[in-house]
Amino acid sequence: MNTEIEFPSYEGALTLRGTAYSPDRANGRVPVVIMTHGMADSAERLAPAAQWLADHGFGVVLYDHRGFGPSDGQPRQEFDPVAQCRDMQMAITFAQSCDAFDADRVALWGTSFSGGHVLAVAAIDTRVNAVVSQAPWIAGTEITRHILGAEGLAAFREVFNDERRRLLDGGRPSLSPVVRHPDAPEGGFALVDTQEGYDYLISGPAGLPKGWMNSFTTRSLEHAIEFDVRPYAGRLGTIPLLMITGSRDSLIPGELVREFYDLVNGPKQLTVLDAEHHSLYLPGKGFEESMEASTRWFTEHLQLEAVQHS
After folding, report:
1. d(CA 94, CA 70)
2. What is the domain-level CATH number for residue 128?
3. Does residue 238 sit within a domain?
4. Which of 1, 64, 214, 285 is deepest in the core (most CB within 10 A)?
């Protein structure tokens, strides 16, 4: 059973919107997984992952970040990881208020940018009982240097200074494209320019989500570059952590994921799939393996008897 939901942002000024998923067959309150999307994406694209978990006996709260999809927030298409992490804590509070969900069995599932969020939130919020972090954004500066080199990183920082000068002069935040076809003529910047990224974001099996825009505020990248969750690794304590990564991920360096994983002292598992970054969402290219691993992890650590997938 799926229900449209809304709840306030952490400061109470905005309304975040999404969908709550409940298993069709449930005896009493069920464990609940908080789920949200990555950089400049849409919660709608994660509906298959949410439904998969619901089919296996879990409740799910899936929502759009502020400024994206049906959620409130200005400027539109801007991602701020600190605000998003605080909103995720409000999503936990909302889930605990739902009669169908067990307030004492709360898990986080994040991917890409939100894969970093769940690591930070789990480290500071004692209500979290288990975590799955897929292809996570670990350290923005290192990821940017990996993709663009030191000169590219320096060039980005000058772009951000230009943005501040524009705003000082009364301008509005500029926009950059999320994705372009890898065969498109060179020139300009796009967040994603790989074939698998294009296949997921533009020509994926679910089509384009309603209201999704192929743009984000350029200054969002400064928030992302400065976002680094490595200091939280030692604070996860005994929270069970599953990290999933693709062996052919060209966006998130595998060594960063391994570095974070090695610093965690509690129950943990690292699953490396033969997949690229965005193909983890695509059926037949990594999606099923990722969700099977997530289901096993939550089943084990949220004390849920395995539900036969229908």
Report:
1. 17
2. 3.40.50.1820
3. yes
4. 64
* Phi-psi sector, 64: left (phi>0), alpha (psi -120 to 50), beta: beta
Q: What share of the chain is helix, strand, coil (3-state, %, to 5)?
A: 40, 20, 40
User: Exposure pattern of 133-172 as b/e (b: 16+ CB <10 Å)?
Assistant: bbbbbbbbebbbbbeeeeeebeebeeeeeebeeeeeeeee
| Rounded distance between C-alpha atoms, residue 30 and residue 10, angstroms | 25
With residue 220 as reference, give the H or E element that holds it.
Answer: helix 220-225
pLDDT in tens, the chain (310 residues): 899 999 999 999 999 999 999 998 878 899 999 999 999 999 999 999 999 999 999 999 999 999 999 999 999 999 999 999 999 999 999 999 999 999 999 999 999 999 999 999 999 999 999 999 999 999 999 999 988 899 988 988 999 999 999 999 998 999 999 998 888 877 678 899 888 899 899 877 778 998 899 999 999 999 999 999 999 999 999 999 999 999 999 999 999 999 999 999 999 999 999 999 999 999 999 999 999 999 999 999 998 764 443 3
196, 279 contact by CB (below 8 A): yes
Instruction: Flag whether 134 is in a domain.
Output: yes
57 found inside a domain: yes
How many structural domains are present in the chain? 1
∠ CA 284-38-62, nearest 5°, is 85
Q: d(Cα 145, Cα 141) in Å, to the nearest integer?
A: 6
**168 domain-assigned:** no
Cα atoms found within 13 Å of the Cα of residue 32, Cβ hemisphere only: 26
pTM: 0.94
Contact indicator for 85, 114 with CB cutoff of 8 Å: no
How far is 136 from 222, CA to CA, in rounded Å? 17
Contact 116, 143 (CB under 8 A): no
**Residue 96 contacts residue 127 (beta carbons within 8 Å):** yes
